[in-house]
């Protein structure tokens, strides 16, 4: 037995030694296969440094120049520095004062920071005090300075993203040029400074730039770590700045999921991004006063489903028939798990947020019909309509749209070519060179193609989403025309032989953007300079007079009722309490808005009086612009929508018949006859506004 055990032990030891030798030899082979970077000559290092330095300088300069341009344009358009404080607040158009009590909306205690998403203002106020700026600059100038500075970071991030994709900072310059020229369709900063998107989108652009770098195959360890940290910080900040940010991140997660499904990038990298999403969601949930909308968001359901699917995934050899079947099963498993998890979360997590959004989408896509005033009013908003022809015409005139379509088609076809090759089991080189002409094999490019298609599809349905898509168009088009790989891919398909394709690709990647840049300079630069030289007049004396009267004549405890937009301006400019606000993420406020809008309907004086007194209103403001509105879109005037909701319009054989035993309240109350004068007393009026005091003691006159 001892003799038999001896050879057995010796055999086991030999196997162990052999296996360890194999592992060591495999490691040695892996190390030997990895190319050892040779020390580059000094002149090459200097060229690289100079290229990076000039590119970074151009990126920072572009951002600073854009921020200065916005500041100068804003001053010329509104004469901001020469206006009184009240007039500045009117042109400012937003909620600046941070409130956390029951002095904003009557009979309602709201968390203004959470409900109005005032986290940016909260941060700005802390910075204002901490930096000692309160002794140097007025709060409103500090605020708009931060917002304009963020817009500078926005274009800088777009610059860097295009530079990373193309390898040349010339693409970044062209991106910024197209962004500024098409700024009517790329940003709303000119119309309303405090919009949440103006705070959030710069951070999203930084996140996309970091993600682009992170997905690159040839990135070193230190670059990966930097991109990962920047991506983590910008993702969380983006989520804190905008209540709808998780929907945009959901689209990004879908793009990454498809990228992973096509095996165009290591799964480990993509799943690291998923971890960032989960961390940001739960941290946001805690710091946003336990915001339940984040727990029931489709982003969380998708990411959890992807994590579960990865745990259930079997290790099979890539390229085999079983592996392909497993990919298909995994895809359907993720989709089914996402839906199931989202339903379960909504069953167990109490939530009210964004329920109206789902109803709106149902009506928007024809899945449901409604007479509800709020839904129909939202459908009539210009930003929620399909894009107009003028939008596409403007993008075409600046040459942006034609080049974008060209770049998108080439990248998409190249991507599909790579995918089919992988499905058929054909081996592809891991390191893509310029001579390969295979731009569709780069994971960061494919991610951007998928993402821009998703955003573009939504922008074709809802015009307001063009402000998410058009900056992407600028960046992708600029990358394409400046990328030698894209031109080389095209030449490979055309089988160009007369001229050396690599040389021609390099020439075109410099010549085409140069020609585009010169043509844009010649046509649009004079227009930009003219805009800065012209003094535009902002003239709204009626609103200024109204605000002045409220400050001087109205009691401090007075509560005002009127349209939500006007109430927001009154709260901002005077601080007086109001009955409603232009917020569309709260069901109670939406119902309030609809009830207050009844002042423009065909209802009795007694009905309107009961509605207003139920909200403890003391003053009513009737706007002539709404009462006598002449809408460009049929059936979209406020009074038309109210007539439909109240059943005062009946459609018979294609004709609309209006009937009600009462006249339109906003017209009748101006005539000053009974019973209207019994309930309401006019105390102030000008060309645009009529202010009525709501009588506490009703005196009936014959």
From TrEMBL:
Membrane-crossing residue ranges in chain numbering: 52-73, 140-157, 163-181, 276-309, 329-349, 401-420, 445-462, 468-490, 502-521
Protein topology in the membrane = Multi-pass membrane protein
* Family under the similarity heading: Belongs to the dpy-19 family.
Pfam annotation, one family? Dpy19
Composition bias, Basic and acidic residues? 18-32
Provide this UniProt record's keywords sorted from A to Z: Glycosyltransferase, Membrane, Transferase, Transmembrane, Transmembrane helix
The segment annotated Disordered runs over 1-34
Organism equals Vulpes vulpes (Red fox)
Q: Where in the cell is it found?
A: Membrane
* Protein name listed in UniProt: Probable C-mannosyltransferase DPY19L4 isoform X2
């Amino acid at each position: 037995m001892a003799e038999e055990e001896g050879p057995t032990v010796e055999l086991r030891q030999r196997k162990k030694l052999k296996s360890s030798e194999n592992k060591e030899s495999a490691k040695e082979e892996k190390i030997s296969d990895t190319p050892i970077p040779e020390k580059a000559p000094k002149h090459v290092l200097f060229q690289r440094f100079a290229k990076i330095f000039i590119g970074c300088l151009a990126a920072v300069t572009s951002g600073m120049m854009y921020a200065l341009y916005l500041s100068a344009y804003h001053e010329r358009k509104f004469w901001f520095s020469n206006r009184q404080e009240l007039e500045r607040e009117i042109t400012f158009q937003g909620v600046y004062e941070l409130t956390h009590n029951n002095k904003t909306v009557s009979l309602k205690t709201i968390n203004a920071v959470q409900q109005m998403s005032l986290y940016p203002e909260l941060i700005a106020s802390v910075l204002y005090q901490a930096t000692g700026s309160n002794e140097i600059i007025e709060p409103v100038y500090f605020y708009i300075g931060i917002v304009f500075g963020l817009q500078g970071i926005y274009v800088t991030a777009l610059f860097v993203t295009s530079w990373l994709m193309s390898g040349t900072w010339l693409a970044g310059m062209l991106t910024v040029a197209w962004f500024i020229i098409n700024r009517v369709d790329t940003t709303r900063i000119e119309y309303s400074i405090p919009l949440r998107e103006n705070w959030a989108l710069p951070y999203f652009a930084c996140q996309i730039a970091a993600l682009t770098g992170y997905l690159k195959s040839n990135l070193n360890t230190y670059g990966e770590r930097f991109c990962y940290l920047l991506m983590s910080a910008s993702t969380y900040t983006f989520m804190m700045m905008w209540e709808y940010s998780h929907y945009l991140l959901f689209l990004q997660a879908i793009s990454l999921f498809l990228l992973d499904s096509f095996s165009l990038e290591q799964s480990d990298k993509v799943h690291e991004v998923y971890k960032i999403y989960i961390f940001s969601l739960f941290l946001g949930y805690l710091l946003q006063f336990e915001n339940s909308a984040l727990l029931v968001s489709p982003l969380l359901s998708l990411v959890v489903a992807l994590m579960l699917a990865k745990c259930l995934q079997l290790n099979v050899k890539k390229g085999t028939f079983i592996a392909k079947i497993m990919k298909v099963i995994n895809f359907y498993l993720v989709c089914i798990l996402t839906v199931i998890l989202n339903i379960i979360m909504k069953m167990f997590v109490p939530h009210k947020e964004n329920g109206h959004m789902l109803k709106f989408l149902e009506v928007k896509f024809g899945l449901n019909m409604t007479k509800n005033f709020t839904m129909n009013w939202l459908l009539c908003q210009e930003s929620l309509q399909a894009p107009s022809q003028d939008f596409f015409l403007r993008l075409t005139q600046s040459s942006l749209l034609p080049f974008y379509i060209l770049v998108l088609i080439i990248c998409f076809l190249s991507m599909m070519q790579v995918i089919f090759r992988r499905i058929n089991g054909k081996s592809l080189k891991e390191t893509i060179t310029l001579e390969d002409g295979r731009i569709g094999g780069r994971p960061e490019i494919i991610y951007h193609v998928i993402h821009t298609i998703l955003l573009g599809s939504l922008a074709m349905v809802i015009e307001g989403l063009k402000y998410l898509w058009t900056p992407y168009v600028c960046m992708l088009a600029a990358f394409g025309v400046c990328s030698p790989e894209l031109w080389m891919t095209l030449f490979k398909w055309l089988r160009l032989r007369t001229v050396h394709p690599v040389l021609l690709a390099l020439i075109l990647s410099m010549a085409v953007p140069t020609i585009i840049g010169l043509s844009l300079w010649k046509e649009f630069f004079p227009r930009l300079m003219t805009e800065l030289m012209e003094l535009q007049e902002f003239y709204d004396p009626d609103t200024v007079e109204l605000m002045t009267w409220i400050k001087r004549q109205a009691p401090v405890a007075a509560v005002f009722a009127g349209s939500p937009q006007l109430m927001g301006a009154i709260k901002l400019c005077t601080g007086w309490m109001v009955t409603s606000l232009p917020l569309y993420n709260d069901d109670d406020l939406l119902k309030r808005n609809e009830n207050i809008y009844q002042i423009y309907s065909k209802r009795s004086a007694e009905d309107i009086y009961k509605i207003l007194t139920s909200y403890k209103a003391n003053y009513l403001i009737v706007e002539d612009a709404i009462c006598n509105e002449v809408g460009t879109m049929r059936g979209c005037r406020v009074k038309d929508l109210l007539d439909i909701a109240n059943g005062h319009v009946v459609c018979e054989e294609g004709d609309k018949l209006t009937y009600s035993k009462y006249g339109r309240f906003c017209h009748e109350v101006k005539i000053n006859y009974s019973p209207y004068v019994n309930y309401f007393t006019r105390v102030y009026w000008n060309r645009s506004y009529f202010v009525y005091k709501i009588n506490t003691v009703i005196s009936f006159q014959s």
